[in-house]
Amino acid sequence: MDEGHLEQAARRLAGRKVLVIGAGTRPDDDPRAPVGNGRAIAVLAAREGADVACADVSAPAAAATAELVSSEGTLSVAVVGDATDAEQSAAMVAEAVLGLGGLDALVVNVGVGLGTGLTGSSPEDWDQVLSLNLRAPFLAAKHALPAMADAGAVVFIGSVAGLRAATNSPAYDSSKAGLFGLTRHVAKEAGARRIRANLVVPGLIDTPMGRQASAGRASRTASFERIPLGRQGTAWEVAEAVTFLLSDHASYITGQSLVVDGGLSAV
User: Residue 229's domain spans which residues?
Assistant: First the structure.
């Protein structure tokens, strides 16, 4: 896989057992297609020394990521389930705990955008987006926290759409804004056990999903020119932020959001 400029990992997560929900990258006909955020997070966590349970609604996608994790020399488990379903969410956590022999950290990387404006968004669009983008992270935290070791970590993956009306989907923008509140609550409730919860907020990232969004929305491509650093980010740069927040280097950081957008939201 193409990690670009990444340096040799410092093994910041040695011995940790991490569940990544949304760890797959959908197949793409382009052999040069970039890796998705979830897969990059799982692989970099393994490179940092973690055993990783790779969960996805797609069995082939979960298995492909698990194989990449194994190639890094750590234990991998492929887990399949629908993160929006309460029973399947609980089962994914249980399978990860069984396969890894415990659980130290949770990453939830899920999201979909539907609808165009208020008039072009149906109630069904709203329910589907909120179910995946907000219900699924809630369920994951609800089921993972009781199984997680003390002093663990939770990282949700949001979007700069949660900071401003960044897309044409009111459901997407609203759901990503809701993750800020969920993150704060999880941080407050889990703090008694020294479990930290934080939110990574990617901007315009070159992933398969990002490319699909650009193809369907010209305004997204036009935004590239406004990024102070002059380019889109990569999934590996998102993964770097996540692994930092999972590690002891972030031992006194909780309830916070880390924006990874090349300065876009600042201008």
Answer: 17-266
Confidence tier at 4 by pLDDT (50, 70, 90): very low
pLDDT at position 33 is 79
CA 140, 265, 237, 11 dihedral sign is negative
Residue 100: other Cβ atoms inside 10 A: 21
Tell me whether residue 1 is in a domain: no
Domain contains 2: no
- Catalytic residue, from 126, 138, 172, 236: name it: 172
CATH number, position 155? 3.40.50.720
Q: What is the pTM for the complete model shown?
A: 0.91
Question: What's the distance, Cα to Cα, between the start and end of the chain in Å?
Answer: 33
The residue written with tokens 């002059």 in the block is 230
Q: How many domains does the chain have?
A: 1
Q: If you write DSSP's letter for every residue of 75-108 in order, what string do you get? A: -EEEEE--TTSHHHHHHHHHHHHHHHTS--EEEE
- Mean pLDDT over residues 100-118, rounded? 95
Cα(158)–Cα(135) distance, integer angstroms: 13
For residue 96, the model assigns a pLDDT of: 98
Contact 156, 132 (CB under 8 A): no
Q: In residues, how long is the chain?
A: 267
pLDDT digits over 137-178, tens only? 999 999 999 999 999 999 999 999 999 888 889 999 999 999
**Whether the predicted pLDDT of 215 surpasses 80:** no
Three-state SS at 112: coil
Which residues does 24 contact at the CB level (< 8 Å), separation at least 6?
36, 38, 39, 54, 56, 57, 58, 60, 61, 62, 64, 65
Between CA 174 and CA 82 the distance in angstroms is: 22
- Residue 146: which residues within 8 A CB-CB, separation 6 or more? none
Residue 6 placed within a domain: no
Question: In the annotation, is 252 catalytic?
Answer: no
